[in-house]
Amino acid sequence: MEHPHIKDPSQDDGPLWGSKIGSAKDPERGVMPLDSGEARMHSLGYKQELKREFGFLTSTCASLGLMAFSSGLTGFFGIAYMNGGPVSVVWGWLLVAVMNIFVALTMAEIVSAYPIAGGPYYWCLELLDNNPKYTLIGWCTGWMNVLGQFALTAFNALLLAKHVAIMWLLGNGHVFPPLETLLVYAIVLLPAGFLSTSSTRGMRSYAAAAGAFLVVSGLLIAVALPVVAPTHQSAAFVFTHFNVGDMAMSNVPNVAYLFLLGMLTAQGTFIGYEAPAQFAEETRRADVSVPRAIILSVMANAVLGFCYIVAILFSIQGVANLSNGEAHGYLVGQIFYDCFKARFGSGVGAIVMLIIPMITTFNATVLSLATNARMLWAFARDGGVPYSRVWSAVSDCTHTPVSAVWAMSALAFLLGLPMLYSLEVFQALISVSSVGLYTSYAIPIVLRMLRKDSFQAGPFQLGKWQLPVHLAAVVWVAISTVSFIMPTCYPVDISNVNWTPVTVGAALLLVLGGWYLPCLRAWQCHHGKARTLGCACARAAGRCSGGTQEPEFESPSAHLQRLTLTDLEYTVAKEATPQNGATTRAAPACPPARTGQLGGTHTSVVIQSHLPLHKKP
């Protein structure tokens, strides 16, 4: 569908993927042209509150650093290896990687149309035209995403605490009691919180460093470990050996069931690649950069993780004693230890090498917390959480959602307290991370399929491949969700029950209770999109949503509460200024800003973009 007032990209002199946007002033109007991502965000009814410092590569690094293949594979390797052996590890990884590319492609197409923080939550609102009848769908999606990301932050911190405990065990034989594990867990969250409150430029630099370190260090281990190992397993063992005997240990019904359990290692590592979507309001040309970052990060994670897996499997020294050695069942730590012990007679080198996944796990915790805070901030901006005005605040110092960062950090610490009594209870609580996130991914994907005729695509489009890609994504998310909630062994009793369906069900009940219970009545407070841009600005730019000619807004008092002091001061002064000698007040106008909005009666927006704005018919 052509937009009559937007220049055709094919007629533009500049490259589609270049950096022409925002690089020079409009010679006729003397203002900076609007960034294409910011323009698209304005067309959706939201003003720019955060600074755009991220680019394509740094956005990719944020996603890659959050998934952190060396972190997830080091911590979860035993799940796949003990449920089928090398075949589950290698081929499970490849299958999960390919299927997650389909999910990433679908997410990329949606975020290209809606490049705004909030991710799946906001996509649902827009795909449903912000219809009040379906606000509950967006509400549930938002809360499942918030809870999933919040649990993911706690899970990364726990993974790091357990990793430190294993390093300490290999060093002096001391086993951490629950109190010491909780202490490390808390120590991890504190600096992670401070780093997550940094400015957008600081977070961009941190994400770039985390991504670069992950790639270089992961390849270093993949090369160095086989060199250190004095003996190697055969290619037949690495690529074709399936340990059917593992069925006897768990009493699962068949080989396919065992393979699905083994895939959980890979699926747990491919979590968090929506990070570029949560950083969209801090990314230049987000409608182009963010979808590319999501896809590239998933592909890079797949390739690098495969190299890491193959190197570890080839370097196994003693297959029989792998799970009952010095590392107490922490298989990658044991493999590192066996290699250095066999080569040099000492396992000190293994402890040094384990520092690498320790750093990548900490980086994943920081990026997870920062991403989680952006989701909470965006949800609070629309009034989706209690005390929304507190959590939707942006720091005047860093121009980032500092309050949301510390809220998520504090809640993650509180979630860790049950580990004092039972680590299994804590793991049950944080198991909602996987199912919660994938459920929040699935809902907008299904809506995208159902609303294909009314969907206005952004720069990234799947074209004729959209139907098979969407179907593959939905089927895979369904399979993944079922895999996470299946019993891990039979017969099921209180000692081996999988608590994931219980925690997910409890989370859904709490979310629905918050919506319907008379004492909470969230349905009276949350009405979907808040549209913080302002009436005059949106009308002047022709920004409408939901198929209406006039955009809907909150009550005037609620809208003014969301304006900054500068916005309010300018609006009051403008209204009090007579025009053409008249004594009546003029209509409110937009405050002057660097975005290219011009105050006055003939407000206009200068957009030098290769891409059309989102505008529903």
TrEMBL record:
Protein name: Amino acid transporter
GO MF term list: transmembrane transporter activity
Keywords on record: Membrane, Transmembrane, Transmembrane helix, Transport
Bias kind Basic and acidic residues: ranges: 1-10
Cellular compartments per GO CC: membrane
PROSITE patterns for this protein: AMINO_ACID_PERMEASE_1 (PS00218)
Transmembrane portions of the chain: 54-79, 91-114, 134-155, 175-195, 207-229, 255-273, 294-316, 350-371, 402-421, 427-447, 467-486, 498-517
Keyword Ribosomal protein included in the entry's annotation: no
GO biological process: amino acid transport
Subcellular location per the Swiss-Prot or TrEMBL entry: Membrane
Location of region: Disordered: 1-32
Major site of localization recorded for this protein: membrane
Bilayer topology: Multi-pass membrane protein
Top-level taxonomic group: Eukaryota
